[in-house]
Model the fold of this input.
Amino acid sequence: MTSKKLEAALADAEDAFQRKPENPEVGLEHVSDPATLQLRKSCRLLDAAGFLLDRNGHFTVIIESSFVAIERSIQFYVEEKGYDVAEQRHAEVYELGVRAGLFSRDIAERLEELWTENRSESYYRTGVAGEYRARTIYELAVQLHDEIVQLTRTQDCLCE
Done:
């Protein structure tokens, strides 16, 4: 049985996503280019994950943010190369990375397997997130992001 408070909270959330943001996130508020938006979302995810990692906690959130940052960074790269990524699923982004020449099929398969086997275990299933896992996936996400920024020579990265 659903409570009235839950129904009201759901209605408020539905309404909120139908409105233009009143106080938009700095760095994302005036971006019209879809590729740049993905890059900057990756920057924000990495910043948040790094913030939490420095405080030694919330490892599940760090792992999740790092995996999503990897996807957003790859999306930026492939969109910059002219590939359409609209409505792609999680695993498809790795194949697009191969097609766009970002990395080899072997690397794509390893990234996809890492995502399939470990992200879902840490987030949805019985796996427990820990500091070492969080730190290593975060470092992978930062390395991939940095390499993409260097390869594209973009000036749109928000990372420090």
About this structure: The domain at 32-152 is CATH 1.20.120.330 (Four Helix Bundle (Hemerythrin (Met), subunit A)). The CA atoms of residues 49 and 91 lie 22 Å apart. The chain has one domain: 32-152. The radius of gyration is 17 Å.
